[in-house]
């Protein structure tokens, strides 16, 4: 066995540089000076006897071996965090720091009702929240930047365990004077491609909307894309088209102050599943299951 092994800190510096692609930003994210981070990576290279990063005045480029080492470092750091989680799990249930990523089509509508009660009833829980798109949130989970993710399924999550929170029904949002507005459900066949407003790529609700309308391959033009549900509602209110909204957003009052009306979508997959997911075989599984119970209680 080698006498000298890489330290956790050295591996953290390497991973931070890979993720940020810039020594200054990586150092800031690691809460150290740029010289400290640079020295730590040089020490790692000297220890391993290889070059991991090619440096120039403007570009940081990882060697092929450097990329492989970084991927291994990701796994080592995740294992180290799970070791720490194992110790935490032996203490008081649902206590200590817990990092949760939440997608933007859930966070502003669900969390305001839940966080005050969690702070009141779980004072020992330090919940660290991060809003990310589904793809970024899953990547954060796999790389150990998040302990769990609150998102909507179906979505490709890889090797995870999950707890069902709720089914969220999809509705069609139309201008108040839309001639196609029926008194009840709206069939997907009534949603013309030319007027269907969507979220930009990276939001799972975009995929859910297209699947529900049986148009998974539809590519939207730039005029049909928004970055948030609130923007979509404003676009509908100004007669630019129609969109799909989840029930939780409607219940949270997203249509307040507009003349937009919402009708249930009549389709086989006119819903999304709200779920809490975490890494498979995580030692904090009992904590995540307890958190899921809290989320279901609303």
From TrEMBL:
Q: What family does this chain come from, according to its entry?
A: Belongs to the LysR transcriptional regulatory family.
* Tree of life domain: Bacteria
Task: Determine if Magnesium is one of this entry's keywords.
Answer: no
Q: Which UniProt keywords apply?
A: DNA-binding, Transcription, Transcription regulation
What residues does the HTH lysR-type domain cover?
A: 6-63
Q: Which organism is it from?
A: Qipengyuania benthica
Tell me what this protein is called. Answer: LysR substrate-binding domain-containing protein
Q: Does Transcription count among this protein's keywords?
A: yes
């Amino acid at each position: 066995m080698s006498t000298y092994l890489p330290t956790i800190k050295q591996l953290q510096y390497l991973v931070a540089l890979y993720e940020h692609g810039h020594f200054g930003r990586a150092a800031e994210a690691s809460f150290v000076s740029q010289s400290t981070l640079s020295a730590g990576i040089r020490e790692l290279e000297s220890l391993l006897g290889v070059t991991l990063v090619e440096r120039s005045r403007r570009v940081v480029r990882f060697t092929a071996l450097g990329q492989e080492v970084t991927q291994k470092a990701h796994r080592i750091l995740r294992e180290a965090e799970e070791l720490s989680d194992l110790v935490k799990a032996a203490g008081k249930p649902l206590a200590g720091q817990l990092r949760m990523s939440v997608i933007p089509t859930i966070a502003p509508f669900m969390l305001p009702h839940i966080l005050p009660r969690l702070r009141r009833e779980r004072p020992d829980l330090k919940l660290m929240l991060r809003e990310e798109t589904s793809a970024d949130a899953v990547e954060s989970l796999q790389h150990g930047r998040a302990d769990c993710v609150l998102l909507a399924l179906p979505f490709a999550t890889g090797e995870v365990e999950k707890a069902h929170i709720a089914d969220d029904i999809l509705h069609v949002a139309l201008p108040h004077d839309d001639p196609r507005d029926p008194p009840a459900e709206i069939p997907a066949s009534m949603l013309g491609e030319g007027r269907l407003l969507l979220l930009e790529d990276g939001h799972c609700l975009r995929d859910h909307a297209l699947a529900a309308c049986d148009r998974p391959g539809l590519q939207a033009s730039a005029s049909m894309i928004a970055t948030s549900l609130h923007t979509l509602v404003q676009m509908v209110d100004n007669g630019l088209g129609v969109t799909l909204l989840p029930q939780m957003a409607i219940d949270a009052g997203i249509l307040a102050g507009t003349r937009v009306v919402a009708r249930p979508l009549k389709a086989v997959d006119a819903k999304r599943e709200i779920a809490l997911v975490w890494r498979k075989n995580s030692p904090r599984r009992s904590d995540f299951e307890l958190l899921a119970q809290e989320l279901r209680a609303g």
